Structure formats: structure tokens, C-alpha cells
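RETRY 2/3 - previous attempt timed out on the joint model. Re-submitting the same 1342-residue input unchanged.
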Amino acid sequence: MTGESRPIDLKNVKINDPFWKGEMELVRKEVIPYQWEAINDRVEGAEPSFAMRNFKLAGRITAKRRELSDDYREVIWPVDIFQTLPKDMDHLEDRFYGFLFQDTDFSKWIEAVGYSLTQHPDPELEKTADEAIDIVCAAQQDNGYLDTYYIINDMSRIFTNLRDHHELYCLGHLVEGAVAYYLATGKDKLLNAAKRFADYVYSRFGKEEGKIHGYPGHEIAEMALVRLYEVSGDEKYLELSRYFIDERGTRPYYFDKEHPGEEEKRGGKPGYHYHQAHVPVRQQDEAVGHAVRAVYLYSGMADVARLTGDESLKQACRRLFDNIVNKKMYITGGIGGTNIGEAFSFNYDLPNDLAYSETCAAIGLVFFARRMLQMDADSRYADVMERALYNTVLSGMALDGKSFFYVNPLEVNPKACHEDARKAHVKPVRQKWFGCACCPPNIARLVSSVAAYAYTESEDTLFMHLYVGGTVKKEYPEGSVVWEVDADIMDKSRVRVVCSEAAPEGTEGTIAIRIPDWCDSYTLSCKDHAHELHKGYEYIRGTFRKGEEIELVFDKKLKIMQAASAVSEDHGKVALSYGPFVYCIEEKDNGKDLHLLSVDTDASKAVFEKTVIAGNEATRIIMPGKREKIRDGALYSEYRAAEYEDAKLIFIPYYTWANRGEGEMRVWIGR
Amino acid sequence: MTGESRPIDLKNVKINDPFWKGEMELVRKEVIPYQWEAINDRVEGAEPSFAMRNFKLAGRITAKRRELSDDYREVIWPVDIFQTLPKDMDHLEDRFYGFLFQDTDFSKWIEAVGYSLTQHPDPELEKTADEAIDIVCAAQQDNGYLDTYYIINDMSRIFTNLRDHHELYCLGHLVEGAVAYYLATGKDKLLNAAKRFADYVYSRFGKEEGKIHGYPGHEIAEMALVRLYEVSGDEKYLELSRYFIDERGTRPYYFDKEHPGEEEKRGGKPGYHYHQAHVPVRQQDEAVGHAVRAVYLYSGMADVARLTGDESLKQACRRLFDNIVNKKMYITGGIGGTNIGEAFSFNYDLPNDLAYSETCAAIGLVFFARRMLQMDADSRYADVMERALYNTVLSGMALDGKSFFYVNPLEVNPKACHEDARKAHVKPVRQKWFGCACCPPNIARLVSSVAAYAYTESEDTLFMHLYVGGTVKKEYPEGSVVWEVDADIMDKSRVRVVCSEAAPEGTEGTIAIRIPDWCDSYTLSCKDHAHELHKGYEYIRGTFRKGEEIELVFDKKLKIMQAASAVSEDHGKVALSYGPFVYCIEEKDNGKDLHLLSVDTDASKAVFEKTVIAGNEATRIIMPGKREKIRDGALYSEYRAAEYEDAKLIFIPYYTWANRGEGEMRVWIGR
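RETRY 2/3 succeeded.
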């Protein structure tokens, strides 16, 4: 019973889960094609991405530069990253457009494409992808460097602003995309390009004299390099990742060297919390700064800690995970209490209406949680992963896959979104596409690789962390066991696993199924196989034969939840959850002035109803409650006991909110 | 029984009220001398004001300009208003320093000095003031222009940016200061300078062709010019004020003419809400934009409406007043729900912890309310004036007069102030002095002229709006009546008015005493004089004889208040008020985690106790309540009924908060 595991090879899984199959088909049919149009600037009414355009221009420059043997300089410097967009797309200058990290629009797309191809081969999509890869690879410099912003503008300035520019972030996403595409198709052109870029970075960064003693301003390279190491077996990528992690936050600050005078501005105080670079990572015990950056870093730390057995790094990961989960996470699994810096706020500061709770940050928390799980198969990590995934991540995408939330508030008054600049970041309905297109493609790559979060494996054991139905193959030296997993989490409160193909007689194996935090009790049927509960997983061991069935029946009940006393925002309120889903109330079902509603706390009074929300099936919950009658009169008056009328409160799953137009919404409700 | 009135001449009042005398002495002994040091850049550790320094430099330039017959140009343009302050005050360049409106630091000081001299003659202070006036007047241009920013920088650019620069704002404050000093001392040097500046503005602005068709970006000139008209009798000042009011918000926007392209940026939509210039003032029915600017404008509108009998303007004033009072005012009389633009938020959006509620805005609301009262002696205006004055205005100054709040929140968690950038504007303790020194001198000028808010008069009637003890003289054609007013509002629930000097036998007069909104019943003793209640005032009419006494005894009780249903921030909460004072709870008296406290709503259980807060006497109120016990455990857990322990909640008057160090504070408390 070993705790460590690795994600399952996506090619060994075929998802047919009614819920997840639908989500993945949305990504395949809606998001990926839309995204391709978007990165080619062909979406009417959306801000252009410029990603492919920049690659094409960079490719021409690279070719020209080869001709001119390094004398070519098309210096347009410094480029205003908030430049006004051109009005006439047909007459663009030959220059870089968009954010500095615009290359990653392509990288995230190709990553989603890779995952999607493992589940649904599509020669036409693969052809498009290959052509795009040709364009991208043509931009690569002979030394391996590949970031169009600097290739187009000024190669002499590369790696001079690690803090604010995003070269190592672009490297990270390129690696993730290249690995995914390689694993899906076996084609290594992009993988080799990513390796060459990583090799070049390896040659330029490190402890040695003459090398750059820096680290990424926006993390992701840390975990991406580990992935490259795992695919290639080349130790230097692990070494580089570890270097970035170890160097981070050491004094004097590398970012200060890049930006002289910063130390003075701070008056000698520690800085760079925004970048998680305020102290060395092993000294960190509170999740701070930009939430996406933070969980990307922690994910890389967890990877390196697991692979190197670095106990102090493991401990830092556990402290940071615990800090998030015990003090800084919304009940929806969202993180980032403040829009200022898209960041974690202080402990227990979890405002519902001002929340940032970025979709990408929840995705990053899923990454981090799975890596903690890989380190130690403890269901509490999976509980968090599930919470973030089924609520905030899914909330990020409309039920039709056509619009997206960056920000996932737990309370919305549309009037405030429109008229209060403090809540300008909170949108009452999803938006089509963004100039900074981080969240939509991030959802695409996570949803299309959900099997890698649902299932991990060790030599002996197949871990089932999430209940995602499909066919799952576990390979043993002697042969494979194939399991048919029937796990419709939306509708049913059980998971059934049937052995459809057995390993050769005598092969022993283990399947470990998570017992979720939302069930108080369960029944396991596994014939006469030995089973044992360990850290929230039922380990069922045996020589499985074809047709053998394991069934786990959960006691799935409505839970009336409350927040810790220290969360003043939620004081006196409750939230409903049912299975992995957090629920909310919307104006559409409950009328205006949701703050006047209160809910009965007796969960046994709940009525569950099948419903259809924007064409999608869902379970809604009807609870008795009260509506406080509106008092007429003055803004302030003497207190008199409020009058109430009975109300039926209609709750819908949080991820389905804002799919029926604009209106008020609340997760936390008076009791 | 006429509704209209004018403020009493401050020389006809001697305040000896124990509460107000103390406040005024603080201003006289602490604030005015400190302010003088501040505007001369002699306060260690405080940001320099540069006000007197700029005037001195401007004076030299003006003298030089006379010598050089207009050829002198010392162009330093444009000056960065957020310029880094010089490190070495001894070696400043000859240039303008500070904010564009830095001149007003002097004007507010001289205004406070004027008021103070009426109550407390002080030859030394008057000498200092005269010398300062000499310096200021020396800076004036031959044409009357007087704003050091442009005098120092570039006279060819005056009046080219009314929207963002503050020339007309400087004019307004100069007039206010000059009038106050003239009325106190009879000295007209500064008054004449102010008139000459106003004359020059009159010559440049107006409907006529060739004149500037603009109006102030920051209002105040509107009401100041009315004051100048009232003192001088010169109609042109009233005319100019009315012009500014009538022109405001007309299309095309004057500010667009100054700043071409603004119309295009807005896509043809109305703009300039921040400046209350989005539509003509007579079409406005919602208080919007920068709160100080708004109430300054409305004050000027009320003045002009009263003096010109302009019914449509009166109606606009009433609508705007009602909108504030019914939808946009904190229970403390504070206004401005958002720090973004220091502005009104939307109707009923009154967040307690994010409040802006600027001291100056409450002062402006006092101005506006008194002008509404002058238009129509209806006690509902006085109720608002009193609420703002006794709570938010007084909260603006420490009990020792040495530190100040700009922002007056109704809920504070010091951790949030320090760590949450969204609340960076909220300070948990008062600050010494500010680079933008609007609030401290504004408090000084209001407190030292409080008699002009407590008392107004018409030909026949002396109005007592606030209960401020002292000697008050009402002049009649036949002679004067002097009243001794005993009105210790802090301690007593009655006001006693004794005639200490009667007018000649046969002179009839009226004294009108307000019945406050915080008393449910009262007893009036006025011998055999006729009396009548009208719009919240008891009008007592008669021939008053020496020694005659009128007494009004109020039924002053603790009130447990609630907010309207639409104020979601205050839902389920109550606030305590007692007489004019709103109360709050502080960590100092009640421990941490104030959100866990709830108060009994039975006001009869209140215990009143004399106490001393930072050396000042006050009444504290002890109420039974509950403290919810802290639950240990997870951030989210299944709801179980909370456990409570009995608690004694100790309330102190809101204006005394944060005088005993840093800690949590709340006005609105669970019930």
C-alpha cells in the first residue's frame, strides 16, 4: 500500500461518463474550434489574440536573421503592452501585438487538442495542429529560444525582466502543450522544439557563475519541466525545475537586481509576495500573492518534492495546502479573495461579493491537489480537488461552452457589477472571449484531461480519486486489467466497477477507491476480496476475474454547511451542498432581494427535483424558508421585529448559475 | 411664521456650551496653531503643505512681472501634481509645489481664524493672520487673478483646464476665508482681494460671446459667491454663481471642449457624473459622483434658489436632498459609499467596512442641510444636519484635536486596513496631517462657526436648530433680545432659554425651537406665550421680559435602529442611537471578533454610565447581548446550532471611537 502514484496514461482511459462525456464534447466541439479561430483572429467582435500572427511574423524574422547572420535587428522597444489595438486588421504593422504572454494562447490550445485526440481521434484536427506546429517551430531561434515577443522586438534583451515579462511562463506552457501532443500522437516535432527551448534555458540559468541566478515571475515552468523530465527521462529538466524552486525568494532578491532601487522603495522590508518570492519556498507557510502563480508554483514544488524525496519541500507543500484549505478557500473551491493583484487576501478574508476566485486559480488548485495526492494518497487532497473542479472550474464555462467566467463570485447583485467600480471585475453573465485568454483554454485543457485527475496509478494500484465513468486499463507486467467504471455522479450515489478484461490468472492487483468527504457512510461489495480503508481510500486487493464487480454505495445526502467562526462574511449563513456540488439560489427562481431570504436548516425537508437548465439536466433542491417582508418607510427607523412569509427556496448547482440571463445569485444564505 | 432665514451673525453669539465650548477650544488651541505651522511647512514628520511658500514665490513673480510688463514667463509646464517631494526643504527650486489646490490650505485656515476671533479675540493671532494676508495679496495679479499654481507656472494657460485644475475652487475658498475674516475683524484687505479675483472671473465667464462658457470642475465657488453677494450686496456675484449653476451639465459638455475626444471615448454616452455635470442640475434627481463636490454644488444651488425664488431649482435641491437622505446616507450622517472617486455609490449601497464617508463630505452635507433649512424651516433638514455633525464630522477629529480621519467607516478590522488593498483608504487610527489637507481645516472652520448652524434668523424669528448653549442676541428694529441658552446635549435632555435682556416693552418676537427626530414626546413650558408646532419647530411668540424662561424637555431615550430592507449590508443588524449620537462597539471594551456579538433589542435594558474616553467625558451604554462561541475545526463543516454565552456589550458614541488605540469597531451589530 504505497502512497505515491502517477497520472494514468490518457490513452488507457475512455470516458463515457454521462456528465463528463458531455463536458468533454463541449470542449471538443465548441471550445477547441472556437479557440483556433480566436488565436487566428477570426472571431467577429472578439479582441484579436494575435498569437498565430506573432508566430508567423517571428518565423519570417527568424528566417531573415539566419540569412543576415545575427545582424538583423528590428527593434521596436519598449512595446506598450497596453497598446491600443489596431482598428484595421488588414493593415497591421509588422510588429508584436497583444500581451507579452500571447504565445501561450497557442500552447494551451495544442495541449487541449492533444488530450482531446486521446479520447476522440480526429485526423482533420490533427492536420490543423501539425500545420500550426510548423508555424510555431519556424519561429524558434537556432539557439532554441522561442518567445515571439523578444524574437520580434529585440533578442538582445531576452531574460532581462523575468519579474514582469513572461518568457519562462511561455516556456512552461509550450512544454505542457508539446508533451500532451506528443503523448496523444507520438509526433515529436513540437516536443523537440520545447526541449530545445528548455535546453537553452538550462544553459543560461543556474547556480554557476556566469549563469542567470533568476527564476520565473509567473510560475508554471517548474511543473512543466518535471513533466518534460517524466516524458524524456532527462534529469536536467528536473534539475532546472529544482533550481528555480530553490532559488526563489533568496536574498538579495533577483528581481531587485533586475530592477535596481526596489529594495530602497521597500525600505528594506521583504517584498515580492505577489510573486511568492518574499522568502525561500521552504520558509513559506501562508499562500500569498497572485493566486494562479501561487498554486502553479506549489504544484511544481510538490512534483519536485515527490521525485527527489525532499522532506522539507514536502512539508512546505503540506503547510501551504493546509493554509489554503483551512483559511483561504471558498466553499466552491475557489481561491483568491481579492481582485487587487488577483490574489489571496489575508486568512479568513473571503468576501462573497468581491471575490476574485479566478477560474484559472481553481484549475491551479486542482493541479496542486493532484500532485499532493500523487505524493500521498490521502482523500483530503482529492476532496479539495473535487470541490474546485465540480464547482469553480465548471462554473467558468457556460453550459453551452460558448462563454466564460474569469471571476466566480459567491454573491452577485448585477446592479453592483454595472455601477460599482469595486466590483467591475465581477461579471453577472459569462463573457465571450478575452484579450487575456487564460481561463477558457485552461478549462479546455483540464476538462479534456480530466481522466488524469480521476485516476492515478502506482505499480500495483489503480487509484480512483473522482467518479468518472469509462473504461480504464491498468497495466501490470504480466498483462492488463480493464475496468468498466459506471459512475454517474450527477444522478447516482454509487460507483460500480466491473472487470471486463482480467490479467493472466494469478496476477494480483489493487484498486483503491476514494471515500468522499460528503458521505457519512457507505457500503462496499467486493465479493471475497480483501479490502482495507486507509487515508480515505478503500484498497481492494485480489486476483480479479472477468465479470467481477465491485460496488461502492455512498450515503449521499444534502448537507447544510457553515463556515468557521472567523469568516465574518459568512457569519449567520449557511450553504447547501449535495455530493460534490455546492448549490446556490438565483433571482430567476427565487425573485429579487435574495438577502431577505432565509433557509430552514433541517436537511430532511429537502425535495430533490430533476430539472433542465439551459438545455442541461440537473438536480435542483427545494427547501422551505422564509422571506422577510419589505418594510416601507425611512432609510433608518426604530427596530421592530421583522415579518416573514413562507417561501420555497429553489437551489441549483453552483456550476449552472448565470446560464439563464442576468440576475442576483447567492451561495451563502441566511438561516 | 416665515420659513426662510439667514445664519446668525457670529458676533451675536457667545458659545458656552460644555460640549461645544470644548470642541471650539480644541480648534483654537490645537488645530489653528498646528495648521499655521503646517501651511508654513514647519511640522516635523508631516508632508509639507507649501501653501505659504507658493504664495511667497508667486508674490515675487508678480512683483517681477510688474517690472517686466508682462514679459516675464517662468514656464514649468506641465507640473506633475504627484511629484516626488523634495528631500531637502532648505534647497527647494523656485517652483510650485504640492497639489494644484494648495492655496486653499491658507484660505481654510484664515476662515477658521475668522470664526475663532469672533468667539475669542486674540490680537497675536490676528497679527499673524494680517501678515499672512499681506503675503497672499502680494501674489495677486493686477487683473485680480489669484491662483499661485498658474501665477508661478504659466499665466497664459489659466482657465484652460477647469475640469481637473482647481482655480475656481481656490476662488471659492478664498472668498469664504475672506468673508469670515472680514466679518470677524472688519478688515477688508483680503475681502477686496477676493472681490477682485471674483470680478476678474466675472469678466471672463458668462453666456456672452467671447466669454468662457465653463464652470468649476470642483464646486464651491457657487456657494462662496453667494456669500460674497450677501456681504457686499453686489448682484454680479449672485449672477456669476447662478451662471455656473445654470451652465453645468449642458450639451455639448464644456469639459469636452477642453478635452477633445472625450465624447468619442464615451461613445456618445452622458459623462461627468463624477463632476455632477452629466445633465443640467434641474434634471438631476440622484446624488452622484464625488460626494464633497456634490454637496458643495447642492449648497450653492440651494442658496441661489432661495435668493432668486427659483422654484425648479428648489425642487432639484429637494429631490437631491431626499435621494441622499433616503437612499445614500449612512446612519452616522456620512455620505460616499465608495472610495473609487470618493463618491456616492448606487442607491442603498452602503457598505460599512468599505465606506468612504469622508469627513469633508459630511461637512458638505451640513452645509447643504442648513441651506435647505434656510429655504424652509423644516426640522427634517436639521435632523440630518445634526446627524452628520455629531457623528461623522466630530469623528473626523481626535478628542485631543491632534489627529484626523478622512474616512469614517462604520466597521473596522485593523487587519483588513493593513493587509487588504481594497481597504487601504480605511485607517484604523487617525492620522496626523495629510498632503491633501482638506478634512482637518474643514473641521476647524465648521466647528468654530457652529453657531451659524445652530441658529438662523429671519426678521421676526430666532431659529434654534441645534442645542448649543450660550448667549444669543436677536436684533429687532426696536432693540435686541438676549437669550441665555442652557443646552448641554451630552448630559441633559432639555434646553432652557432665559431672556437675559429684553427688547423695549411692546416688541414682539418669535423664538422657534426644533423638536428633534430622536424624541418621541416633549414638554414645553413657556409661561403664557402662544406657541405652535410647525414642521417640527415650536414657534413661541410674545413680548419677552427679562428673566422669562422657556423650557423644552425632551423624552430622550435609547433607540434601537434598523436600516431599510434594501440595505443588504445592514440586514439582520441594528445600531444604537441616543439623542443625536450614534453609538458603536470597540474591541477595547468588547474583545475581538465583534461579528460574533449580538445585542438584545429591548432598549429598556440599557444601563447608562458616565465614563472617560481619552480624557473626555462621555456616556457609555451597556446592553445585554450574546457572544457566539467560537467553533473549532474545519473551514467548512456541517451546520449545527451555534452556542452562545451571555455578554455585556459596551457602546460608546461613534465620534469617540479610535481614541484608545487600534482595534475592531462596529456600528451595526447582529441582533
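The CA atoms of residues 159 and 167 of chain A lie 7 Å apart. Closing ticket.
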